[in-house]
Amino acid sequence: MSRRQVSALLRHPRWWALLAIGLCLGYAVVTVSLLRAWALPVIAGAWLGAGWLLRWGAPRAARPRARVWPWSLLPLALWGLYVYLNDSFGIVDLGAIFFHLQAGMSDHGGSDRLVAAVLYSLSMLALLAAFTWLVRVDHRWRLGERLLALVLLASNPLLYGMTQRGAAIVTDDGAWLDRRYVAPVIEETPSNPPNLLLLYLESIERTYADRERFGDAYADLDLLGERGHVFEGVRQLDNTGWTMAGMIASQCGTPLMPAGLLHDRQFSPLEKVVPGVDCLGDLLSEQGYRLSYLGGASTGFAGKGLFYEGHGFETVLGREQLAERLENPEYLNNWGLYDDSLYDFTIEEIQRLDAEHDGPWGVVNLTIAGHAPNGYPAQACIDRQGEFDGVDILYSVECSAWLARDLVERLEAEGLLENTLVVVASDHLTMRVSVWDQLIAGERDNTFMLLGHGIGAGVRTYREASMVDLFPTILEAMGFGIDGHRAGLGVSLLAGEEHATLVEAHGLEGINARMREENALQKRLWEGLVPQGRSEDAAEPERRDAQVVESPLDATGEVPASVQ
């Protein structure tokens, strides 16, 4: 074949259309199946080879072109959305998508995810244009693409949970979880109630403690755990796999089932977050605790400010308030404060609360260093660990673990942890990171450890549990008596094994299956919520600031900002 013939062949739209489809197909297969990157050109090449052999786009017995719109365009677009979410997070949580769509999609901290979203959108437009061209010029594709549309719809994992609401309507029992919910009530109070320091380490799951797979990245948390009580086997239920959901599960004893799935409240802006249940803050504030929340990101992300302000917290501090107090106002990442700055402000807040001598205090803290996919290691960690390559999540895990241990030791040195229960926990399992293949190679569990007087040292407890069990466990570790060692859906892990957790009694998949049929617990969570604009008599609620969200579409994928 002459050079002129090759040039003419390459200019034909058939090959560009097939190449676009082949590249998108290869990328989707590699992303979903976790094949190595070299498989992408192999799959694309195989597609082009099949197109050449079968003369796709240039049939021998060609029929006239038809200006039709393929039925498969929407199913292809939905698959594109699934691949994007899978690439960003590894595990696609439909509940997270609905929750963040309801909360809003503005003003997130994910500039790089915006770039990724634009690139994905352009790729999808190229795919849809190429497929439309192929269907219009090749009658064989026109005849079979309706069946292809059905196959694409039936095989898309994103759509598996779309029948959640419908299942709850037709099921014989849509209140299985709700019947197991125990409203939290403190029945006994200790004579000297302890303070509480609850540290959420973003995405720092206990799975990283496996030194054969992850080296010493988790070593500082192991050392911290030797001084207290470490719990193993804390699994992740559906609707607990992102920050807001993990905090609600561990403080309210229930998964965060969105305010509305497939009904008229689905996209109404939130005024309150889970107003229908009492949580840790509600109970402690009734006991006279002064409660503070500090986080490096905006308090508007995923309704964090709404949640803490609505559940007993007097002080809620995030990026908006804390950035003004930085010595170097440029020392920020794309989401907010680095953890060394956040911990300095946490010490200042505890000093303030301790100096007031006005009853016990509670401080909840949320870090950012371990945020997928690469993390945001603080300057203090770079000074200690050397330069960060911007990719290795284990560097960021080590940073988060060391900073947490250092914080506890600094507070102890200042005498600020006397009569204080320290809780160290991950907010959820991590999303897709540089060691994703190793993480999913075995069972995964969340970090959860207790430190303090009377807790014991070097104690390890293995229980098949979930984040909802942290709520009653924390209460009992503080010395409070609760009915039957239960609160919400959780069971105290300090109780005997005769008090089985939901995971022990019914298995993780069994509970998740029930959740897909549940509507009674969902209604309980959001009881009393009047969506904005739905009631003519409802006054416009006052809001301290515009709500921003940690979106499943935009929240991760950051390349950490350069340290200033």
From TrEMBL:
Residues 195-479 form the Sulfatase N-terminal domain. The chain crosses the membrane at residues 38-56, 114-135, 147-163. Residues 534-547 have a biased composition (Basic and acidic residues). InterPro entries: Alkaline_phosphatase_core_sf, OpgB/LTA_synthase_biosynth, Sulfatase_N. It is a multi-pass membrane protein. Residues 531-564 are annotated as: Disordered. It holds the Pfam family Sulfatase. It comes from the Bacteria. It is found in: Cell membrane. PANTHER family: LIPOTEICHOIC ACID SYNTHASE, PHOSPHOGLYCEROL TRANSFERASE I. This is Sulfatase-like hydrolase/transferase. Keywords: Cell membrane, Membrane, Transmembrane, Transmembrane helix.
